[in-house]
Structure formats: structure tokens, C-alpha cells
Amino acid sequence: MSDPIGSDIALGYCFNTFSSREPVSASLENALGTKMDERLRKPRIDDVARRAGVSTATVSRALATPDQVKPKTREAVEKAVLETGYVLNVAARNLRTNRTHAVLAVVPDVANIFFSQVLRGISDTLHQHGYRLVIADTGNDPERRPAGSTASCC
Questions:
Q1: How far apart are CA 37 and CA 125, in angstroms?
Q2: Strand residue runs (E) in the chain
């Protein structure tokens, strides 16, 4: 159920400002004190920087290599990240750096206990070094191997 008091206040404010032929979104922006598109979009690194009072480069450095930033600055950035709800866009980073930090393992049968154990060891090691494991199961069908794959096993 909606809050009739809050709705009435917001709607009343909108109706009072219609005399200037202002669009509803502008009236709501005035009532809320912020632009509508800023409230609806995902937080960006510049939002975090503004909130923390630092540059976007400092935010980036604080998140990527925290030991290179003063503790007070790092705390301000971490607080701003929590307040804004900022989440690093890994896909965007991968596109920008042209690196995915992912390794593909092609196995003939992932259900085979041998391959499961090997994959677990590979995954654990990769994780320690900041990489992810992507697994392709060919189902023992050589036709399902990725293009360019020359390895033959089992």
C-alpha cells in the first residue's frame, strides 16, 4: 500500500508548480532536490568521486591499488562507494583494458571425477592470481571443440 501523505505532498507540490508549465519530471526534481535521471541510473565513478571529494583517478586508484592511497582518502572513497551503491562494471573494465582475466578449459566430460578434480585445482590457482575459469564441456564430441583447438585428450 502506498503512503498517501508522502504522495499528497509530492503531488501537491507538482500541481502548485504547474502554473509555470513546468513538466512533471522537473516539478519532481525540484521537490526531491535532485535530477530524475541521476536518481534512476546506476552510480558511476564520478558520483563516488564527487561524494568523497576526490578525483575520479583517485577513486580508481583507491579501488584498484588501495595501498597507494592515504588511509584517510581510502576511507572516504570506501564510504562514498557504500553510500552511492557503486559497483565496478567488470565488463567495461575488460573492454577498456582488452583483458578478461579469464582462462578457458575445454574438457571432454566435466562429470568425470578426474576432470572435476583437475578443474577445481586450476580454478583455485587462477583465483589466487585474479583470474576466473571458464569451462567448456565437449561431451566427448570432437566436433564441439572450439575453433582452432588442436589438443586431443582422452
A1: 42
A2: 102-107, 132-137
**Entry pTM:** 0.48
Structural domains of the chain sorted by starting position, each given as residue range(s) with its CATH number in brackets = 1-40 (no CATH), 42-98 (1.10.260.40), 100-144 (3.40.50.2300)
Cβ pair 63, 77 in contact under 8 A: yes
pLDDT digits (tens, 9 = 90+) for 48-84: 999 999 999 999 999 988 999 999 999 999 999 999 9
Grid coordinates in use for 120? 577445481
- Burial class from Cβ neighbours inside 10 Å (0-12, 13-18, 19+) for residue 84 reads middle
- The Cβ of residue 32 has, within 10 Å, a number of other Cβ atoms equal to 13
pLDDT tens-digit profile of 88-133?
887 888 888 888 889 999 999 888 999 999 999 999 999 999 899 9
